[in-house]
Amino acid sequence: MEEEKKTPEVEEIKATEQQQIEEESDFADEMKPEVTEEAKVEEPKEPEVNLYAEPAPESEETMKEEPKQEEQAPVEAAPMKKGKKRKEVVTYVYDDPELQSIEDARKVFHEQYHKLNVIKWIITGVGLVLIIAGWVIPSLIQGLGSNITMYVALGVTALVLVGIAIYSHFFRKKTDAYMRIYFKDYYIHSNKYVYGDMVENLTGTVDDKLPQDLLVQSNIYKDVAKVGSRAFMNFTYKDHKGIVADAAAQKKGDRQLETLFVGKFLKFEGITSQDEVLIYLKGNKRALPPNSLKERNLIEDSRTMVVYGSGKARTLLTKKVREALAAFDTNKTFIDMAISVNSNGLFLAMGYEDDLMVLPLEKAFNPAPTTQNKNDMAKVFALVDAFANPHGEK
């Protein structure tokens, strides 16, 4: 067949038809421009790193079951009237005196808070009655002018509001005092249970704060804008000075601060490396992977762990270190963990869920998360030993 001649008229008609298609289409994916061979060539993309733990193969799941945390033990409440739902009372078994002491301290706080709260509601109720009476009673008394009635009502209202304000201030002050006592007792007993005789010279109070520069030194997180913390403690583990704190790190977002980390932050001195390594143990979808990973050199990526490092950082991952790392299992309470070894020391950012990080006030103390933390800390100390003595020399 003869090739169609492309006259100016034909070219104009085709151009008009193409213009009509473009004007009538509202969807970009309907436009299918001609793709040349050059356009089809794409640069090879670096595979993306999945920073969340992947499900274990079926063979592994049958061999290793995730340890279950102690479940709630509901206890029957007193019989209630027909038609009303029975309210379950949740209790726990405390297999250690320190755990029992935490619950005892919580009960004392809750009873004190409950008494203060009842008094507050009684004062508020009486105050409202007085305000109403201050408006109604004067209006019923004959001979009182409207101005006097209004002044009396306003005076009563002002006195009641001043009284409520004074008690509210007293309520907040007493509640804060009781809460400080409870928090102090909580950490005394929790630390004795979690660390026991594994550490020496554990000092610090619930009011002590983690210096922000210590978290920055870890190089785990970048653009740290704010660090909130409590219970900053110093201790000694064998020959290593260490610190631990409950901490939350944040960075500046577009509209507000964004959370980088929530959990237990630790540092050990005496374990350093000029070739920095960062190990991240992956967790569930609530995990918060470090925001400094994209700029780093990827060394390893597995189902449960990703490793970044510079220079000869891989040499830090000895057999003993790998065995210590393999002992950790992230779960619903122990969400994830970032480990950094650099010239400043060994750092660990252990991400924990609210069931450990938020102290119980009204509900009974659940010992399972604290037990989880104790088991995790034993593994942390084993990891410290592995880094400090990688080849098992005596």
Strand order of the largest sheet: 3-4-5-6-11-10-7-9-8
For the record, give the distance between the C-alpha atoms at the N and C termini, rounded to a whole number.
Answer: 90 Å
Structural class: alpha+beta
User: Number of DSSP strands?
Assistant: 11
Query: Assembly state here?
Result: single chain
Largest sheet: 9 strands, antiparallel
Order of helices and strands: HHHEEHHEHEEEEEEHEEHH
Global shape: elongated
DSSP helix count?
A: 9
User: What is the rounded Rg?
Assistant: 32 Å
Low confidence ranges: 1-45, 61-80
- Strand percentage lies at 15-25%
Q: What is the share of helical residues?
A: 40-55%
Mean pLDDT: 83
3D architecture notes:
With 394 residues, the protein is α+β, with helices and mostly antiparallel strands. Helices cover 41% and strands 20% of the residues. It has helices spanning 8-24, 37-40, 58-63, 97-140, 146-195, 212-217, 319-326, 354-357, 368-388; strands at residues 73-75, 89-91, 200-203, 226-237, 240-252, 257-268, 277-281, 298-301, 305-309, 334-342, 345-352. Strand 4 and strand 5 form a beta hairpin. Helix 5 (146-195) crosses helix 9 (368-388). The longest helix has 50 residues, at 146-195. It is elongated, with a radius of gyration of 32 Å. The model is unreliable at 1-45 and 61-80 (pLDDT under 50).
List the helices and strands and how they pair.
Elements: H1 8-24, H2 37-40, H3 58-63, E1 73-75, E2 89-91, H4 97-140, H5 146-195, E3 200-203, H6 212-217, E4 226-237, E5 240-252, E6 257-268, E7 277-281, E8 298-301, E9 305-309, H7 319-326, E10 334-342, E11 345-352, H8 354-357, H9 368-388
Antiparallel strand pairs: 1-2, 3-4, 4-5, 5-6, 6-11, 7-9, 7-10, 8-9, 10-11
Helix pairs in contact: 4-5, 5-9, 7-9
